[in-house]
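Re: the request from the purification team.
They wanted to know what the chain is likely to look like in 3D before they choose a buffer screen. I agreed to run a prediction and write the result into the notebook, where they can find it.
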Amino acid sequence: NVFVVSLAFADLVVAFYPYPLVLYALFHDGWALGDTQCMVSGFLMGLSVIGSIFNITGIAVNRYCYICHSFSYSRLYSYRNTLLFVALIWVITIVAIIPNFYVGSLRYDPRVYSCTFAQNVSSSYTVAVVVVHFLVPIAVVTFCYLRIWVLVIQVRRKVKTEESPRIRPSDLRNFLTMFVVFVLFAICWAPLNLIGLAVAIDPSHVAPRIPEWLFVVSYFMAYFNSCLNAIIYGLLNRNFRNEYKRIITSVWVTRLFVTETSRAATDAKSKVNSPTVTVKQSIEKDCELSC
């Protein structure tokens, strides 16, 4: 749960600051907020992206230890150690972003109206970014999930032979949820990273041949991944679905309560100030006295 909250925070970083600035640049057809805002926006966007992939990697390692090495899991992932692991992920994320300031790769790209990582600034640095920020984490996550899948297949065979299974259904559902999160992340980010790798290998020949629409589609497809995780949790995890329903219901009921309260207050005020109501009350009072 701590890792999931950390991943959710990474997804929300871009929504709080960079995305509103992208909309501002889109409406003004250019960047008009200065270099400082551009650097901050690019830094936070990188923080979200790298934080997401490193958190997904941390979750994969956590699931691997929990399912494949269950006996030592409690010792490895105590509450204190888990917090330290999450803190380490964010420290590594910040350290991975800092070289961008020295290379000067955080720049405004008019094609996507964003201050983001420029792939054509340094070929060697772009290759390092793709390898360290994408290929290595993908390899680690793939290894962890392949080992889990092997164990799942073995457990299913044991179930058929009436032996006691090592994996509970709830653990398997949680694993499947995080596996889908990983697969969609890889699908969304692979095109942009492959384009960056191709440009880094031969910038003078490859960069002019990449269609602008292809880069724009791959860029926004990559950052759209931050919006998908909440949907995946809702579709595949019963606990998240129940909480979504509870939140929506509470918001809707609160809205109805506020609306009805406001309407009742308005009706009461109109009745007090209405001349018709005042005359009617006077007539009723005279009738009572005469009777």
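For the purification team: The longest strand covers residues 106-109.
Please add any questions underneath this entry.
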